[in-house]
Structures are given as C-alpha cells and as structure tokens.
C-alpha cells in the first residue's frame, strides 16, 4: 500500500508540473502569436462587406488547414461564407466546439485611422479584441496540443461565423446544429475586463421596431386636422421607459427615432428602434407581451410592432458551472485565480447555452475598447489564455 500511495502522489506531482512547462511553451512563442494576430487584424472584414469577409474566411481556412484541420464553407448570400473546420482526435468522443466570429463592426478603410500597432504591452487595431485575437488563440492551442500529443486528444470543431455583429442570421442554425453534436462549447469572445474573467452568464438580447402611422396635415392652415405620429410616438416611448426594471435585469433602450418630413407638416409617420435586455428566459414572454399590447393614445393613430428576442439569455446552469470549475482548476496549476462574470452583452454563446449545451464564454483575449478607436489587447496575457484553452479542449 505505501508504494501505491507514493506512485499516486508522484503521478499527481508530474501532472501538476506539466502546466508551468506548458505556460513556458506559449510564452516562448508569444511573439509569433502576436504577429499572427496582426495579420488577422490587417485583413479588414466588416460584417456588411461580403467580398472582404470572404477574403478573411479564405485566409483563415488556409491557416487552420496548415495545422491539420479540414475546412468547409457554409455559403451565405448577404454575408461572408461561414467557416467550419473539423479536427479528428485520438479518442472517439463528442467534439469540443470552438466558437467565434471573424466579422468586425469597422467599415473598410479604418486601418489608416486606427492602425494595428504595439504600444508597450498593448496591441491595438480594429477587431483585435473582438475577436481576432480569439481566433489566433484557437490556432495556437490546437497547434500546441498536436505538438505535445502527436494528435489532438479528442475531436475539435471550429466554427467561425461572418455575421455575429449583425445578429447571426446566416449562421445561427448551423451554430446550434454543431453545438448539439458537441460535448461542450468554448466561445473565444473577449474576456470580461482586464481581470480576464470568463463569462458564465449573459443577458438575452432583443430588438423591436415600433412604427406609428398618423394623419398628415398642414401645420399652419389645418393643424386641427392632423394627428401627429411624433406626438403619439413620444407618448409610447414614455410607456416603454416604464418597462425598465434594472433590479431584475430588464432594460429597455429606445436608441433610434425617426419621423416627419418638414416642420410645417403634421407628421404622418414616426419610428423608434428599441434595444431590450433580459436576465432570464421567464422575462422574455412577459416583456414581449407588454411590447405587443401597446395601444395608441390617439385613436386616429395606428401602431405596428416588429421584432422580438434574438438571443435568449445564457444562464449559469450546472453545465456551465461545471465547465467553469474545470477552467478554475487549470488556472490554479499556474497560481492564477480565474474569476467568472455575468455580462449584459450577448454572443453566439447565448444560442448554444440556450439549447442546453454546456458553454463557457469569454475565453478569448484580455483588453479594452471593443468597437471603439482604442480597442486593444494585453500582449502578456496571451500565453495564459492559450494555456487555458488548450487545457479545456483536453478536459471539457
């Protein structure tokens, strides 16, 4: 018995000693990883430019095939073609799905205005945080696992979508189908804040458009004959504001309004576009019911409501919590306290978690300024993120 205990203890020590050595592996290759991210950033890929997005997709397909993947495209008419890469593994188990997107919010021509550059420990550039660094981390982790083991220990599916920033209309069904075939989903969206927390909960997201049809009239000659769509819309927006319940995690933001034609015309039409955030699934039906039950104050005006909840909340289910516990354990091996966070923004991880597949989000780069001119990642954090991803591919 004493001999058996000693072997067990020695085995545990050997296992624990692997992680610092693996971290050194990624640290030694960090310059190459930064260069890879720069290459990705300097291929601009806005969501609404199919030609540019397809150019990015083709480049990424080549990069993943170079580390042993089998790439295939899912054609999209209005957006870039979505990219799937399959990697075989030694074990005949369900794959881990690595999920991300290669579209960005920036239009073509942004690089001269916000060039990809290094300033101290920061790498700046359009899309560097959200989320081209996450894609590079996928490649780095897969390449490392193949180096350490000769082959991936388990099958891996990579799915990179081209339209996440504009609602994922061309990719959602594929994302959900791939998730159903997977043991777990790791989303390479940016980490939460500079502390690098992974995301175990996200709010659900909805978009509604409320259109008011009024009655036009000359504002000087016949003001009494008109029924202003703008006045009616203002009253409706006041009602919408009452739907807010920040304590319960429900927020309503009338973000864009349009209406009228000229100052001397009583407005015949007015429109408001509304962003909605919810914390749990139960809130979705209730809020949707309120939105669709709006009634006009002026009986001569008509209301039309379109839209709905696009992404259900990613809730911290037992499956999500179990993935976080595994990630915590890996981080502890290199004396890293890995935190978790619940955030207000949505991602494609909402889709996979929403259909019950264990999902861990925020596995990507650490930085600040997503969608802003100061967008950047912290270079020195990249080795830990690559290590964490490699470990989760092995253990998820």
Class per helix and strand makeup = alpha+beta
- SSE topology string: HHHEEEEEHEHEEEEHEEEHEHEHEEEH
The pLDDT mean sits at 95
Regions with little confidence, pLDDT below 50 for 5+ residues: 1-14
How helical, in percent, are the residues?
A: 25-40%
Q: Terminal Cα separation, in Å?
A: 32 Å
Question: What does this protein structure show overall?
Answer:
Strand 1 and strand 2 form a beta hairpin. The protein contains 10 helices and 18 strands. Strands 1-2-6-3-7-16 form a 6-stranded mixed sheet, sandwiched between helices. The N terminus is likely disordered. It is α+β, with helices and mostly antiparallel strands.
Topology:
Elements: H1 2-28, H2 30-41, H3 50-65, E1 70-74, E2 82-87, E3 96-101, E4 117-119, E5 122-124, H4 128-149, E6 156-161, H5 172-180, E7 184-187, E8 198-202, E9 204-213, E10 217-218, H6 229-241, E11 251-259, E12 265-266, E13 269-278, H7 281-292, E14 302-311, H8 318-332, E15 340-343, H9 349-354, E16 359-360, E17 367-368, E18 376-378, H10 382-395
Helix pairs in contact: 1-10, 2-4, 4-10, 8-10
Search tags:
single chain, 396 residues, alpha+beta, 6-stranded mixed sheet, 4-stranded antiparallel sheet, 37% helix, disordered N terminus
């Amino acid at each position: 018995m004493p001999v058996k205990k000693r072997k067990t203890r020695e085995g545990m020590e050997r296992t624990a000693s692997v992680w610092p050595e693996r971290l050194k592996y990624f640290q030694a290759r960090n310059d190459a990883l930064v260069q890879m991210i720069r290459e990705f950033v300097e291929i601009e890929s806005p969501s609404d430019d199919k030609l540019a997005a397809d150019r990015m997709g083709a480049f990424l397909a080549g990069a993943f095939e170079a580390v042993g993947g089998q790439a295939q495209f899912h054609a999209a008419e209005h957006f870039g073609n979505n990219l799937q890469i399959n990697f075989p593994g030694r074990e005949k188990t369900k794959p881990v799905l690595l999920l991300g997107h290669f579209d960005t919010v920036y239009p073509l021509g942004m690089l001269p205005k916000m060039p990809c550059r290094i300033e101290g420990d920061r790498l700046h550039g359009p899309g560097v945080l959200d989320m081209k660094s996450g894609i590079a981390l996928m490649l780095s982790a897969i390449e490392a696992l193949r180096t350490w083991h000769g082959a991936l220990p388990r099958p891996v599916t990579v799915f990179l979508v081209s339209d996440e920033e504009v609602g994922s209309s061309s990719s959602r069904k594929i994302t959900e189908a791939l998730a159903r075939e997977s043991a777990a989903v790791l989303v390479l969206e940016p980490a939460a804040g500079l502390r690098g927390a992974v995301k175990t909960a996200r709010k659900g997201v909805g978009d509604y458009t409320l259109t008011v049809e009024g009655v036009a009239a000359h504002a000087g000659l016949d003001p009494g004959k008109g029924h202003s769509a703008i006045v009616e819309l203002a009253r409706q927006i006041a009602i919408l504001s009452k739907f807010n319940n920040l304590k319960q995690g429900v927020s309503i933001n009338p973000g864009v309004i349009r209406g009228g034609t000229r100052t001397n015309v009583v407005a015949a039409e007015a429109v408001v576009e509304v962003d909605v955030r919810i914390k749990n699934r139960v809130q979705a039906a209730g809020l949707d019911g309120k939105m669709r039950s709006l009634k006009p104050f002026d009986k001569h005006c008509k209301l039309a409501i379109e839209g709905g909840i696009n992404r259900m909340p990613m809730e911290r289910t037992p499956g999500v919590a179990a993935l976080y516990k595994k990630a915590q354990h890996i981080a502890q091996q290199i004396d890293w306290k890995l935190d978790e966070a619940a955030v207000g923004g949505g991602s494609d991880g909402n889709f996979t978690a929403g259909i019950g597949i264990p999902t861990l989000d925020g596995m990507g780069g650490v930085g600040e300024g997503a969608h802003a001119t100061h967008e950047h990642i912290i270079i020195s954090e990249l080795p830990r993120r690559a290590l964490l991803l490699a470990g989760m591919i092995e253990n998820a």
